[in-house]
Amino acid sequence: MARTDVQSVKQRFGIIGTSPVLNREIEKALLIAPTDLSVLIAGESGVGKEAFPQIIHQNGIRKHGAYIAVNCGAIPEGTIDSELFGHEKGSFTGALGERKGYFEVANGGTIFLDEVGEMPMATQARLLRVLEYGEFIKVGSSKVQKTDVRIVAATNVDLHQAIRNGKFREDLYYRLNTVPIQIPPLRDRKEDIPLLFRKFSGDFAEKYRMPAVHLTDEARLVLVNYRWPGNIRELKNITERMSIIEQEREISAPTLKTYLTNPDMERLPVLVRDSDPKNFGSEREILYQVLFDMKKDVNELKKLVHDIMSGSINSQQVEGNHTYHPISVKETPDIPVNVTPTPIQVAPKKEEEEPFEADYEEETMSLEDVEKEMIRKALDRNNGRRRNAAQELKISERTLYRKIKEYGLE
Ligand SMILES: Nc1ncnc2c1ncn2[C@@H]1O[C@H](COP(=O)(O)OP(=O)(O)O)[C@@H](O)[C@H]1O
Ligand SMILES: [Mg+2]
Hints:
alpha/beta, two-stranded antiparallel sheet, globular, binds adenosine-5'-diphosphate
């Protein structure tokens, strides 16, 4: 078999980048392609995992066989077994006819199991059986069937953590992970950022028939040093939006920053730069922290307002230190006392009432509230498109569906 080199693979699959880590992983994919080993591709969301199972399939002995990609996070728990393994007629309500599953259809080919960390435990047991014995049983059947598929899986969650949480089978992990491929986050291959930007701005210029956007030197620095939580997918989206929206085709640093989420945050937590997959959750933790801090500020502000109203601080003092103007308090004399204040409501002074502490008591937001709020905002930002919201939140679509239900966000 002719040896395919990294360069031609990149060309064929439209992979941009020269970083040595990326090259190494492509090389690894090519080396193991002709073997029949299972492969696990790990990396944050948006790093470009999806090209890898195709590289492996196309360069393997099964390239003339079927290639089926399944997003385990997007299939409801109730139907995933039947989709993957098929079902017998009448095996459950609605199973009118017999159905072939992907593992049967892909016999002789490759199955790509994307977001494998989202696979329900019962399905994991079935998958393990395929991996160990090449066997499966249709839902509602007792007949053991054989299949010959190569399995390539991908995950953007840390499976070690999932194993510790009892969400992923350890034996399955070792079976899948015979060859690990780890795609580094974009922030760890900064040298590729300008190349990717140039490629995308060129593509979108063509698509929208406009001159390509380009960056000032200062903007390029911002672009390269941004932490890219959504990785290449985010870079591509932002380049597309700028290409459409910006009249001025030379993008300045301040303009670029309006497209980035907390562009100055890379000064802050060291955690974010950590490429250790164990810290995949750290982005979210930082967001929680930011939300908690905001909450604290609001509470302090409330206390301040109450201090003014109870006369313990005069308005001069306040004006000196804060931008908050007490006049807004005086203008709301008719609001009834509210003992469970919302962040923007201010309870006005009432004469012989309970002490003020009761009014501004520490409001703590539960993790649940924070999560609910984050989901609501993500849905808003994506105009209700759940797929995009789920991507942004780095959770699977199925988890998002469940949470929307749970919190009544529909
Ligand atoms: N090296 C790359 N060069 C060019 N485009 C890329 C590269 N890596 C990823 N992309 C693009 O970024 C987007 C996200 O990649 P994808 O493979 O879907 O990420 P994920 O790791 O989440 O599966 C896709 O549009 C993909 O084409
Ligand atoms: Mg993907």
